[in-house]
Design goal:
Helices cover about 40% and strands about 20% of the residues. It has helices at about 1-10, 65-80, 90-95, 105-115, 135-140, and strands spanning about 20-25, 30-35, 40-50, 55-65, 125-130. It has a five-stranded antiparallel beta sheet with strand order 4-3-2-1-5, with helices on both faces. The mean pLDDT is about 95.
């Protein structure tokens, strides 16, 4: 599973020319949301759980609108469990400000906001900001 995960990580920026890529990590798992196609209409959610030796890797492909909802839930409910100072209200406010946009624009806007303005949400947001940071994920395995 580690080899498959590393392959996913390595290819996660393949469709990122016009799309953002999201990777977050905690002591228990790694979470990713990566574009499944160049136009950003489909996204793949990746979860690698360290304490699940039988099936640590889960991948699910969805349309952009549903992927946006899953990403928002993961950041505001999952990651917030691990990041004490995560300002979930600011995240929800930002999400409300983009709710009228189409799915691909929404998910890209949320990911870009978290990557480019992390201090608005936490002093220590455990995310990968660019392709150069991908080795951090591999080192966690």
């Amino acid at each position: 599973m580690a080899e498959e995960f590393n392959s996913i990580v390595d290819s996660s920026y393949d469709n990122a020319e016009n799309n953002a890529v999201f990777w977050a990590y905690t002591k228990d798992y790694i979470f990713g949301m990566v574009p499944a196609n160049p136009d950003g209409s489909r996204w793949t959610e990746i979860s690698y759980t360290f304490e699940d030796p039988d099936d640590p890797l889960v991948k699910t492909e969805r349309d952009a609108e549903l992927s946006f909802q899953f990403l928002l839930e993961e950041v505001s409910k999952g990651i917030s469990f691990y990041v004490e100072d995560l300002n979930v209200n600011n995240i929800k406010d930002f999400a409300k400000s983009i709710e009228s946009k189409p799915g691909p624009e929404k998910i890209n806007a949320l990911i870009s906001e978290l990557i480019n303005n992390p201090s608005a949400y936490s002093a220590n947001l455990p995310i990968i900001k660019d392709k150069a940071g991908l080795q951090t994920l591999k080192d966690k395995l």
